[in-house]
């Protein structure tokens, strides 16, 4: 009997996510030098074309110039502090991106300037989760400060990489779930721009599977309890399957992003860890 490999776990994860409605793309195919490029440079984190299309679709009453202004604001987040960037983007995501623009004068009215209007541009439709685009990309190379890294799987909503999934080989006794967590810490140090947009991370070795917020320490990563939101599943069902079905389905995923990530105010600002309660719901605390 052949041993399970990390590639097997990755393929299993991809197939499970497909059942939830995620489209799959291979990272090298949409790379700047790929067959179907969607990024101008390997330093690009967001899939800008997809986000622009979503902004246009979700904000039809906002002038095109203001929609582009919102897109630029998202791309402009650039504090030296990773968690400050993460909080800034989370506010944009959950509260909307504030924009101002000149409203046109009523038909036939002349002689005065147009009125300046303030509004918000939405990046995600939280009220109708299925009105968003859900995409998973594997082997998505990011280059920042001459550091080249390639996370296993990223989950994008409207072109925004909200979830990072890092996998390890269960057949390798040295490739533990803790090693997957350690790999994410390496990503934070070397490609921090990725985490401007991150809501939470998932780590698994094919047997164990846990999730935690961007700032969570290893002891704050928790398993997800429920696959269907109603009852605890059998202990014989793999933790990876439970978490994917219970936590990463579009409705629960967006509920977690909007309602269960809280930023604590202390000496430094940081998002409090996302942890699943016994009921399977994510609680930030």
UniProtKB/TrEMBL annotation:
<comment type="similarity">
    <text>Belongs to the HsdR family.</text>
</comment>
<dbReference type="GO" id="GO:0005524">
    <property type="term" value="F:ATP binding"/>
</dbReference>
<keyword id="KW-0680">Restriction system</keyword>
<keyword id="KW-0540">Nuclease</keyword>
<dbReference type="GO" id="GO:0009307">
    <property type="term" value="P:DNA restriction-modification system"/>
</dbReference>
<keyword id="KW-0238">DNA-binding</keyword>
<dbReference type="GO" id="GO:0009035">
    <property type="term" value="F:type I site-specific deoxyribonuclease activity"/>
</dbReference>
<dbReference type="InterPro" id="IPR007409">
    <property type="entry name" value="Restrct_endonuc_type1_HsdR_N"/>
</dbReference>
<dbReference type="GO" id="GO:0003677">
    <property type="term" value="F:DNA binding"/>
</dbReference>
<keyword id="KW-0255">Endonuclease</keyword>
<protein>
    <recommendedName>
        <fullName>type I site-specific deoxyribonuclease</fullName>
        <ecNumber>3.1.21.3</ecNumber>
    </recommendedName>
</protein>
<keyword id="KW-0378">Hydrolase</keyword>
<feature type="domain" description="Restriction endonuclease type I HsdR N-terminal">
    <location>
        <begin position="4"/>
        <end position="219"/>
    </location>
</feature>
<dbReference type="InterPro" id="IPR051268">
    <property type="entry name" value="Type-I_R_enzyme_R_subunit"/>
</dbReference>
<keyword id="KW-0547">Nucleotide-binding</keyword>
<keyword id="KW-0067">ATP-binding</keyword>
<dbReference type="Pfam" id="PF04313">
    <property type="entry name" value="HSDR_N"/>
</dbReference>
